[in-house]
Inverse folding.
C-alpha cells in the first residue's frame, strides 16, 4: 500500500517526528497510523534512554500559582540547549510539572532522596499493621514492599501519576518529552508553597 503525504503529515502532527521517519514507519506499518505511533513511541523511548547520560545545563524555572493565590509551585527543569528550552513543548512540560507539584504535594524528587530512616519507619508501621494476620513472614514482607511502592507513588515526584492524566507517571511523561524533543531533560529541584501549610 502506498503511503500518502496526508498520512505522513498527520503522523508528523500527532508525534512531532521527522518527515522521513514518519514515511518510513508508515511504510513499515502499511499505513496504519495508530501502529506507526506505537512504533515511533517505542523507538523514541529507546533513544530517550541513550540521552539520559548527556549533560542538561540549560532550561527554565517555571512557576504555577493556583487561582486565589493560596498555593504555588516552582520547578527547575533542565535541557541541553536554549533552543529546546524556548520551545512550546518544553514550556508546556515545565508548566504541567509546576501545576502537578502544586496539586499533588510531592515531598521528594526521586526515590534516592527518601531518607532510609523514613522508609524503615514506614516498613515498621506496615509490618505492625499485618502482625495480627496469620500470614507467613514472607507474605507479610511482600505486602509491605507492595505498600512501599504505593508510598513512593504518593511522596516521590517522578513516581507520581500525572494529575491531568493518571495513566501516565511523571517519569514517563519526561521520557516522552525527551523522545519528542531529542534532548536529555532533567527535573533539578522544586518547591511548593501553601498559605497556612
Amino acid at each position: 500500500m502506498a503511503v500518502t503525504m496526508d498520512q505522513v503529515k498527520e503522523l508528523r502532527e500527532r508525534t512531532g517526528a521527522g518527515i522521513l521517519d514518519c514515511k518510513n514507519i508508515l511504510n513499515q506499518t502499511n499505513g496504519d497510523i495508530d501502529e506507526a505511533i506505537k512504533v515511533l513511541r517505542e523507538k523514541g523511548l529507546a533513544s530517550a534512554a541513550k540521552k539520559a547520560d548527556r549533560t542538561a545545563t540549560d532550561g527554565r524555572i517555571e512557576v504555577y500559582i493556583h487561582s486565589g493565590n493560596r498555593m504555588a509551585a516552582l520547578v527547575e527543569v533542565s535541557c541541553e540547549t536554549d533552543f529546546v528550552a524556548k520551545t512550546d513543548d518544553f514550556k508546556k512540560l515545565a508548566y504541567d510539572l509546576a501545576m502537578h507539584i502544586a496539586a499533588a504535594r510531592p515531598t521528594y524528587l526521586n526515590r534516592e532522596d527518601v531518607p532510609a530512616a523514613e522508609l524503615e519507619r514506614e516498613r515498621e508501621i506496615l509490618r505492625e499493621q499485618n502482625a495480627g494476620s496469620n500470614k507467613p513472614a514472607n507474605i507479610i514482607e511482600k505486602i509491605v514492599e507492595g505498600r512501599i511502592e504505593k508510598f513512593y507513588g504518593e511522596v516521590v515526584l517522578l513516581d507520581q501519576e500525572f494529575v491531568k492524566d493518571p495513566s501516565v507517571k511523571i517519569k514517563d511523561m519526561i521520557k516522552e518529552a525527551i523522545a519528542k524533543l531529542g534532548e536529555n531533560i532533567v527535573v533539578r529541584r522544586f518547591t511548593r508553597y501553601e498559605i497556612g501549610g
Remarks:
- The chain has a mean pLDDT of 87.
- Helices lie at 5-15, 19-28, 33-51, 82-85, 88-104, 116-131, 137-155, 170-181.
- The domain at 58-109+156-194 is CATH 3.30.479.20 (Tetrahydropterin Synthase; Chain A).
